[in-house]
Specification:
Layout lengths: L14 H14 L2 E6 L2 E6 L2 H9 L7 H7 L1 H4 L8 H11 L5 H21 L6 E3 H6 L2 H10 L6 H11 L6 H24 L5 H7 L1 E2 L2 E2 L2 H31 L2 H9 L3 H12 L6 E5 L3 E3 L2 E3 L3 E5 L1 H4 L34 H18 L4 E4 L17 E3 L4
Parallel strand pairs: 2-9
Antiparallel strand pairs: 1-2, 3-11, 4-5, 6-9, 7-8, 10-11
Helix pairs in contact: 6-8, 6-16, 8-12, 9-10, 9-12, 10-11, 12-14, 12-16, 14-16
The chain binds protoporphyrin IX containing FE.
Protoporphyrin IX containing FE binds next to helix 12 and helix 16.
């Protein structure tokens, strides 16, 4: 496949192919012509440019892109806002995602939750970890954090996945958002009448400068957390396990060497994160060096490309958890820097610890599906593994 005809929205792009294409594009172009779901787009390939593009709220605000792709399903939330309106709403919606709140949540809820999920299949000695673990933990984590009663988690997960299909299946996505609200609305009434120690109650009570989120905004914020937060984290978990199962000696080292695990998480987020490219409309046009792009250009922020820029990392294709943990662009930068980054990192670390603890001799039984695919969100489709029964 010639690099310039790559369609990042439609092509499968398994790991080696994606990174080979990105290496060619990055070397030849600071900003490369590519395709995205059949239309023309340009890919920002190098670390400094991607970082700067994320930070340039003035010329490349993110709101307009999310108004097109996210707002029709999720509703109006801070992700589709810019400027001070964005900042005020983000402040209302995100206190529960700060580092300390997440550490407390990890001890109280995340570790037991990961064990509870493993309990379901541990005695079998084999599983598809994508179907039974990586796509389950992040969704359950958010339902627990919100205070949604057990029993609805699996339905919530199906709806969250469907909400993301808006570009290809608008009716299905909007229907899923409605089903989501039908479960949420009675819960909101209950929490308003009798607040509890959960995120739903916190969202209902939050105020900034005397302003609170209205009921529809609380619903929309919850839909947002599910669709953008849980799905990305599921994919990151899948990619991390895929990289480790492909390196049995590193997996065994991680069993014995607990401090190495944080390095594995950081290196995975650099080496093959869940979001390879991020689309951003340039409403005012864009400029990179002497290249200018007219208003309305669709830029793809090349996260996967920037994170393997050889001017920043020595031998960037090597998976090396002992590298100095340098800045990566995986969670964006500036005004829209991911508010869920602490929660995502915690889930990766906790999941790794629990799987190593519970599944001795964990190894790949069948490589089918184990390589991450996708030019926007990327992840393995299956991880068929076995382990030793105690
Ligand atoms: C490994 C997992 C994750 C990755 C790679 C990731 C990546 C990102 C990136 C790149 C952005 C910036 C988007 C932009 O500039 O347009 C972002 C924003 C966002 N992320 Fe994450 N994310 C992850 C997990 C989460 C989690 C767990 C949550 C919450 C539960 C979350 C919620 C959000 C929200 C609400 C925004 C919008 C922020 C704003 O508009 O101010 N993310 N994420």
């Amino acid at each position: 496949m010639s690099a310039v005809t790559v369609d990042f929205g439609l092509d499968l792009l398994p790991s080696e192919e994606l990174h080979a294409v990105l290496a060619d594009l990055r070397e030849a172009h600071r900003v490369a012509p590519v395709r995205f779901f059949g239309t023309e787009a340009v890919l920002v390939t190098r670390f400094d440019d991607v970082k700067e593009a994320f930070r340039d709220d003035e010329h490349l605000p993110g709101g307009a892109t999310y108004q097109m792709h996210t707002e029709p399903v999720i509703g109006r939330t801070f992700i589709s806002m810019d400027g001070t309106e964005h900042d005020r709403h983000r402040q209302l919606a995100t206190p529960a995602f700060r580092s300390r709140a997440v550490a407390q949540f990890d001890e109280e809820a995340l570790v037991p939750l990961a064990h509870e999920i493993v309990d379901r299949f541990v005695a079998r000695g084999e599983a598809d970890l994508v179907a039974e673990f990586t796509t389950v933990l992040p969704f359950y984590a958010i339902t627990r954090k919100l205070g949604v009663p057990r029993g609805t988690d699996d339905e919530m997960r199906t709806w969250a996945d469907r909400m993301l299909t808006y570009p290809s299946d608008p009716e299905g996505a909007v229907g899923a958002a409605r089903a989501f609200s039908d479960v949420l609305e009675p819960l909101l009434d209950a929490r308003r009448a009798a607040p509890e120690e959960d995120l739903l109650s916190a969202l209902l009570a939050a105020e900034v400068d005397g302003e609170a989120l209205d009921r529809e905004e609380v619903c929309s914020t919850v839909r947002l957390m599910f669709s953008v937060g849980a799905t990305t984290t599921s994919h990151a978990l899948g990619n991390m396990l895929s990289a480790l199962l492909d390196r049995p000696e590193l997996l065994e080292r991680a069993r014995a060497d607990e401090p190495l695990r944080a390095g594995i998480v950081h290196e995975l987020l650099r080496w093959d994160g869940p979001l390879a490219t991020l689309p951003r409309l340039a409403p005012l046009g864009a400029q990179f060096g002497d290249e200018t792009f007219p208003p309305g250009t669709l830029l793809l922020f090349g996260i996967a490309s920037a994170n393997r820029d050889p001017s920043v990392w020595d031998d960037p294709a090597r998976f090396d958890p002992t590298r100095d943990p340098q800045e990566i662009v995986t969670f964006g930068f500036g005004q829209k820097f991911c508010p869920g980054s602490h929660l995502a990192r915690r889930q990766l670390l906790t999941a790794l610890g629990v799987l190593l603890d519970r599944l001795p001799g964990l190894r790949l039984a069948d490589p089918h599906g184990a390589t991450p695919v996708g030019g926007v969100l990327r992840h393995p489709t299956a991880l068929h593994v076995v382990w030793d029964l105690k």
